[in-house]
Amino acid sequence: MWLLAAVSILLQLLVAASVQADDAYYRVVVAEPYMEIHTGAGRGYPVFHVVERGNEVEVIKRRTDWFLVRTSRGKEGWVNRQEMELTLTPGGEKTMFADAAIGDFSRRRWEGGVLAGDFDGADIITVYGAYAMTQNFSAELSVSQVFGDFSDAIIGRISLVAQPFPEWRLSPFFSLGGGLIYTDPNVTLVDESDRTDQIASAGVGVRMYLARRFILRAEYKNNVIFQDKNDNQEIDEWKAGFAFFF
Amino acid sequence: MESRLRIFLLKTISALILTGLVSGCSLIPVNDEPYDDSEPVIQPALERRTITEADIDSEDFEATAFVGVMSIEDFGSNVVYGARLAYHITEDFFTEASIGRTEADETSFETLSGGAQILSDSQRELTYYNISLGYNLLPGEAFIGKGHAYNSALYVIAGVGNTEFADDSHFTVNVGAGYRFLLTDWIALHVDFRDHIFKSDLLGNDKTTHNLEATGGISFFF
Q: Is A16 at the interface with chain B, CB within 8 A?
């Protein structure tokens, strides 16, 4: 008898635990007349099921602007963010599936991206990461690879970037930086050895907020390479590319 | 002086304790109802955990491992393998970083001449990396039999990168198209065709080379 009671208690506990595990998903209540559920995470995928007002659905995951939901009948499908924003929490409050917006762009902390362009006639690819200390100033670390006819080069630079109008969608910036350039001459053409020089750069550019966490960026930099030879080399650099912020 | 202060403090403390005890004692008989400080009779069955919108698992990244065939212009075709990491920005656009490695065969000239070698063994290794922007041109569903539907997409992709070949770095533009077939919500199969375009002066004069690549891969969203 005692054993039976113990087993039934244990079973109840197990059931409760599994219910709790199911409860780990975020739940929303449909507040509009109905919510459309698509077969895929895209606007073109057909609607195969609708959930009526007052019913709860579990939100399993999110991909871009689409949410995978599970209805109480166990149907799984994708719901657009606009429809999700019209739902309520089980407590009756409005849900907020806020996306990264332009406000987050001006308040961003981390930024990373890739740029490609021209470095005094040679091709250049740059990968960079930046940390914003304030809305107006950020520190930027970049690594560039230059593909020249006579030599290739790798440039590592650290810069201070000032952004006077962080709240603008099309926001200009100014940068000042320095670093090292490692030049590797094309051995088949030029009889010269590898060398590492210091490089200083001053630049101006523009960032454009595109959507979500995505920005376009274009910039011009004027570089001075301090060489052992008496005359320093001055190089114009034009680049454009895209970046993300977090 | 000091002892007086101590006595005063002791007096006030003992007075406070006494009044506290008296008032405490007087409270107990006043309380008519049997006081029970155990938990309430009705207990909520589940402690509702506070899950916010921010806790929803966001799966915008996709990691791919691929293997296939890559043809290096003038140097034959060989097995290529590598990895890709994509970030899905919207349902239409994604960015992708990719690395790959293959090896060059002999040119026709090397084969015919018998012993002449243009490149050493280490120079025959080709490694590329690139960053591209992709667009899901034709999203859709694929049907297998009567009861199975899978989401899929035909995408186009283009980007820039670097190709290390024959001890030289080459600025490389890549363009291509691919097909993504989602087995589940988070596992997908890929077929990809890319053209890696770069300038090479390996065989004398500068020329633009087209290096075609066909690969198959498996990817995981996370």
A: yes
Gap from A51 CA to chain B (nearest CA, Å): 20
* Separation in Å, CA of B121 to nearest CA in chain A: 18
Q: Which positions 130-159 of A are in contact with B (Cβ < 8 Å)?
A: 145, 147, 152
Mark yes or no for CB contact B151/A97 under 8 Å: no
**Contact state of B136 with A42 under an 8 Å Cβ cutoff:** yes
Q: What angle do CA A186, A187, A189 make, to 5 degrees?
A: 75
Q: Which pLDDT does position A91 carry in this prediction?
A: 83
Q: For the segment B53-70, what is each residue's pLDDT rounded down to a tens digit?
A: 777 888 889 999 999 999
Which of A:201-230 have CB within 8 Å of B? 211-214
Domains along chain B with CATH numbers: 60-221 (2.40.160.20)
Whether ipTM > 0.85 holds is no
CA distance A117 to chain B (A): 10
Q: What is the tens place of the pLDDT at every residue in A119-162? A: 998 999 999 999 999 989 999 999 999 988 888 899 999 999 99
CB A195 within 8 A of CB A172: no
pLDDT band (50, 70, 90) for residue B48: low
Q: Are B71 and B211 in contact (CB under 8 A)?
A: yes
**What string of DSSP letters covers chain A?**
-HHHHHHHHHHHHHHHHHHHHHTTSEEEE--SSEEEEESSSSTTSPEEEEEETT-EEEEEEEETTEEEEEETT--EEEEEHHHHTT-B-TTSPBP--PPP-HHHHHT--EEEEEEEEEETTEEEEEEEEEEESSSSEEEEEEEEEEE-SSEEEEEEEEEEEE-S-TTSSEEEEEEEEEEEEEEEE-TTT-----EEEEEEEEEEEEEEEEETTEEEEEEEEEEEEE-SSSSPEEEEEEEEEEEEE-
**Could you give the dihedral angle defined by the CA atoms of residues A173, A177, A180 and A183, in that order, rounded to the nearest 10 degrees?**
40
- Phi, psi dihedral angles at A76 (to 5 degrees): -115, 135
Average pLDDT over residues A15-20: 46
Q: Given this model, what pLDDT does residue A19 score?
A: 45
- What residue ranges define each of the domains in chain A, with the CATH number in brackets? 24-98 (2.30.30.40), 104-245 (2.40.160.20)
**Cβ neighbours for B152, distance < 8 A, ≥ 6 positions apart:** B139, B140, B141, B142, B179, B180, B181, B182
